[in-house]
Amino acid sequence: MNKPILIGAMIAALGAILVIALMAFKPATITATVVLKNECDFASSVFVLENQRTKDIHKFRREVAEFSVLRNTPMKLVFAPKYKDAEYFGKEFRVKHHQVITADCTSNSWSLIFAD
C-alpha cells in the first residue's frame, strides 16, 4: 500500500474515533423539574434558581421550575434579582431530572443588606 494513502486512512480513522468519543461523552441536556418546598415566611414567588455557571435565572410557577439545562449543572436557590436589599444563602446543588429542594429560613440562611 502506498504510504500517503495509509497515512490518510489512519487520519480518517482517528477522526471517526474522535467524533464517536465526543458524541458518547457529551454532557446530556435534560428537562429539569425542580419542586420548591417553602418553609419560610416569604411567598414562594420571591425565590428563583440561579445557574452557577451561566447566572441564568429560572422562576418557580406554583412552586415548580421547569427548564432545559446540562445534567449536573450547579444550581442555587436565591431571592429573585428584584429583591436587591435581601440575600438568601441557598446551598449549591447539582440539577437532576426531578428533585425537591427546600427553602429553610429557620437558620441564618438569609439577610437584609443595609447600604451606607
Task: Report on the architecture of this protein.
The chain has 116 residues and is α+β, with helices and mostly antiparallel strands. The chain has a 4-stranded antiparallel β-sheet with strand order 3-2-5-7, with no helix packed on it. Strand 2 (47-51) and strand 3 (57-59) form a beta hairpin. It starts with a helix and ends with a strand. The chain contains 1 helix and 9 strands; from the N terminus they run αβββββββββ.
Strand content: 35-45%
Name the overall outline. elongated
Per CATH, the class reads Mainly Beta
How many strands, which pairing sense, and closed or not: the largest β-sheet?
4 strands, antiparallel
Kindly state the number of beta strands.
9
- Count of DSSP H/I helices: 1
Instruction: Estimate percent helicity.
Output: 10-25%
CATH fold type: Immunoglobulin-like
- Poorly predicted regions are none
| Elements, N to C (H/E) | HEEEEEEEEE
Distance between the termini: 79 Å
CATH architecture descriptor name? Sandwich
State Rg. 22 Å
In summary, what is this structure?
Helix content is 20%, strand content 39%. The protein has 1 helix and 9 strands. It has a 4-stranded antiparallel β-sheet, with no helix packed on it.
Keywords summarizing the entry:
about 120 residues; alpha+beta; 1 helix; four-stranded antiparallel beta sheet; Immunoglobulin-like
Give the topology:
Layout: H1 3-25, E1 29-38, E2 47-51, E3 57-59, E4 64-70, E5 74-79, E6 86-88, E7 93-94, E8 98-103, E9 110-112
Parallel strand pairs: 1-8
Antiparallel strand pairs: 1-4, 2-3, 2-5, 5-7, 6-9
